[in-house]
Amino acid sequence: LGYYVSSSQEHVDIQFVPKLEGYIWVFPRCGHLSVGICGKGWPAHKLRTYLETYMQERGIDYKDAKFFGHMLPSLERCRWKSNRVAGPGWLAVGDAAGLVDPITGEGLYYAMRSGDLASQVILDEARAATEKAEAYSSLLWRDFAADLEFGAGLAKRVYLGKLLFRTVPARMVQFVRRSPRFSVLMQDLLAGTQPYLGLKSRLLKNINGTLPETVMNFFLHKLVTIPDSTQAEA
């Protein structure tokens, strides 16, 4: 939820919120700012109150701003295997299929990509109508759904976990400032070009950096390693 504010700025603001599996954003758009908050574990009225306090503290006027709000269908990791995205005569895409990045909340790419995959299955004349639901589900899983499931297992660790006696977001910001390699890694993650499933292997490749980077990669590798109990839960 958030506000469209008649104002402007040249940069993006991201604010992590203590004890919230989410964040506040300030995005510049054409003619206005999008200022909002998203996350799990808090009711909508608490999210809105926290956001309005944040805006007041930073001099962002929301009194005449247009309010918006909608649900982000971000699934827990244990729900992905049972997530039904297709059936006899229908295929679900985008938000309707729960296709949202569990860490960033991004859904536009997955809506467009799942629509593209659905159209491929529908137009495939070599496949019988009774086979299309299973074909679409399998195609979706191989293309990106398996990666989203893995990301769902990381979300709570990223937002609510601790790393070297500080919150994970605080350490990530610190690492971005100090390590060009980690800065590039985070850019790739936010751009969607670095899959969650490939994080461990990339961190291992970065292990031959400076001593601080080596220590950083060691702890981050532990962060993105999901225990067997969590894997069995899925």
Describe, in plain words, how this protein is organized in 3D.
- The chain has 234 residues and is α+β, with helices and mostly antiparallel strands.
- It folds into three domains: 2-68, no CATH class; 77-152; 161-233, no CATH class.
- Helices cover 46% and strands 16% of the residues.
- The protein contains eight helices and nine strands.
- The strands form three sheets. Strands 2-3-4-1-5 form a five-stranded antiparallel sheet.
- A hairpin with a 4-residue loop joins β2 and β3.
- It is globular.
How would you sum up this structure in a few lines?
With 234 residues, the chain is an alpha+beta fold.
- Helix content range of the residues, please? 40-55%
Strand order of the largest sheet: 2-3-4-1-5
How many angstroms separate the termini? 29 Å
- Which H/E pattern describes the elements? EEEEHEEEHHEEHHHHH
Helix count equals 8
The poorly predicted ranges are: 229-234
Provide the residue-averaged pLDDT: 89
Report the structural category.
alpha+beta
Question: Which helices and strands, and how do they pair?
Answer:
Layout: E1 2-5, E2 13-16, E3 21-29, E4 32-40, H1 44-57, E5 66-68, E6 86-87, E7 90-91, H2 108-123, H3 132-160, E8 162-163, E9 166-167, H4 168-178, H5 180-191, H6 199-205, H7 211-223, H8 228-233
Antiparallel strand pairs: 1-4, 1-5, 2-3, 3-4, 6-7, 8-9
Helix pairs in contact: 2-3, 4-5, 6-7
